[in-house]
Specification:
Helices cover 42% and strands 20% of the residues. By secondary structure, it is of the alpha/beta class.
Length: 237
């Protein structure tokens, strides 16, 4: 199955280069294309991304994460669409696990996994990743679906079948919404071994406890009642 990688990016000139470099280091013949969705950036995000060979930059002028994800769906041609955030870095073996899991689970429509943080101080890294370990799998087993928006792969036909992303959701709950809706098309798998290297910049600015609490409340609200609790969000750049 051919993979399209989509990277939504709003004012990510400081991070997008490392993200694309990590993808290039892991690129295989199964990666059909790498698409950066420049989501109304006012900095050098697009210019930075365009310096990478084989990267296609598309501009989505209407700001919004779900709008950028939807534009990526419309542009992508692969059988699988992988969504990575611009401040993430793809670890070795990531593509191989995508290939293996989708090959052995024909009814699976989505694969996702947690963060391993590359820029948190040691104790905060231990605490944040420990919270993932303690909470993610029990919640996934209880509810039956989970997606981390910064690190998930879905079958293109399944995304189209459910009508793509809900662009009325600005930020919080958008990944839970897509997980819930994808679960109607097939199995939505969350695997702790399928991790992405991610920035902890939001945890550093807003606090680990308050950030995890906010995400948890919006997860359960979206999973159970199909709408997030939190409407406002802050761009951390």
């Amino acid at each position: 199955m051919k993979i399209s990688i989509v990277v939504p990016a709003y004012n990510e000139e400081k991070y997008i280069g490392d993200c694309l470099q990590s993808i290039a280091a892991n690129r295989t013949d199964d990666i059909l294309e790498i698409i950066v969705i420049d989501n109304a950036s006012t900095d050098a995000t697009a210019a930075t991304a365009e310096r990478f060979p084989g990267v296609r930059v598309m501009r989505e002028p209407q700001k919004g994460l779900t709008r950028a994800r939807q534009r990526g769906l419309m542009e992508a041609k692969g059988d699988l669409i992988a969504y990575l955030d611009a401040d993430t870095r793809m670890p070795p073996g990531w593509v191989a696990r995508v290939e293996k899991e989708f090959a052995r689970r024909p009814k699976m429509v989505s694969l996702s996994g947690p963060f391993h943080y590359y820029d948190l101080p040691p104790f905060k890294k231990f605490l944040a990743e420990g919270l993932w370990f303690l909470t993610a799998m029990p919640t996934y087993w209880l509810i039956g679906f989970m997606v981390l928006g910064a690190n998930f792969v879905a079958k293109r036909e399944a995304l189209l079948q459910i009508g793509g992303f809900d662009t009325t959701i600005a930020f919080y709950g958008e990944d839970t919404n897509i997980a819930w809706r994808l679960s109607k098309a097939g199995a939505v798998r969350f695997d702790m071994r399928f991790f992405i290297l991610g920035s902890g910049r939001r945890l550093l600015e807003e606090g680990i406890a308050s950030t995890f609490w906010r995400y948890a409340m919006n997860y359960f609200s979206t999973a159970l009642y199909h709408k997030p609790l939190t409407k406002q969000y802050k761009d951390i750049r």
